[in-house]
Records
---
Amino acid sequence: MMKFKIQPLIIFLGIVSLIFSGRQMLQTKTMILPSWFLTLFFLLITLCVSFALGVLAKKMLNSKWQTRTFASIFAIAISLIYYVSQYRSAYTVFIPKDYVGEVRLLVSNEKENDFFVNKYGIGYINRTTFDEGFYPKIIKGDNDITKQVKEYSKGALATTSEDVYSYEYLSFSVPAKTENIEDKDIEELIKIKAIDTTRLYRRKLLSQ
């Protein structure tokens, strides 16, 4: 009787794991498709695959357990695999309380991140964090504005036509009450020494 009593618990855990995975995916910032679309797609595929594997497992084992019990086991496994594969470290980015506009985290040649953004919207991110990604917490002054930041993007720039290196960066915009904000480009920021180029990681461009 015990094996039949445990089935509702397995099914419950399967549902919880899907809800947790969906919630985690909704919080993930994306650069192309909206998070809700990817979440629905992931849940639909997970359900279909889990039930297909559940049917196969029930037949192969000739078990009296319900198909949805096996499906729940596979749903739990898929959710755990997703969570582990999508794990990202969490870091806090500090922004001056009066700053609005684009923030750029330039890839540095240093081991540590420098997420204390200056008055020009410049901070520094190390190579590993840039490549692996992270879950950001955005603090402006004393306020948490993480939910106000809608999207993140990556970019690269060669400062001159003769430059054989490019500077990479992660950027996002700090919302303002007015849209009439003129952001300085990276070349201009370098000229006014708002960016310390000695700290930057330079990726060599492919020869033409």
Note: Helices lie at 2-26, 35-61, 67-85, 127-132, 186-191.
---
Amino acid sequence: MTLSSAKPAFPAGIYGITAEKFSAGRTNVEVARAMIAGGIRLIQYREKRPAKSFAEMLAECRAIRELTRAAGVLFIVNDYPDLALLADADGVHVGQDDFPVPEVRRLLGPDKLIGLSTHEPAQAAAAVEAGADYIGVGPIFSTQTKEDVCAPVGLGYLDHVVRACPLPFVAIGGIKEHNIGEVVARGARTVCLVTEIVGAADIAATVRRLQATCLAAAGV
């Protein structure tokens, strides 16, 4: 599908996700600020209940929204369309067991991005039919960042999406500095690393280094 002219374009490069549990004592807002300093173009806020109340999450989302808006960075909220609306985020990312994409579209309207996590070809095809703007492809490799995550889908599913899915996508799951080049070389234009970034001693420098690795692997 083609994004409407009112929607922001889905950017290539590093897709940043907050994960306070792995952030070495730094807050999600501090991590987002450092990601922006490193030149990241998209940040997803990901926090799970009951670790924080909705009031705490909303306050963080609004603070990150201010930072991202000032820097021209896209801001996506994971799982919670209501938080995305209240924080005026650019969109929301949902999983297979969350609200269906058409229902999320009813809440957010036509001008927000909706991403959907997928783990197999049938889910990618269904995402196109449902009207998702982009999909998550993974977990490519084994990951401990999320609880109750499915088994790694491997590079074969990535190859399928590159070949057969018309939607933009982000490759995610177990991607590190040592294997990001292989993922990009196989056709991933947007790649997510979580702990590799949020747990880094120098987040901004790490983002810049990873962006450079992506460009090199893509032959840019």
Note: The mean pLDDT is 94.
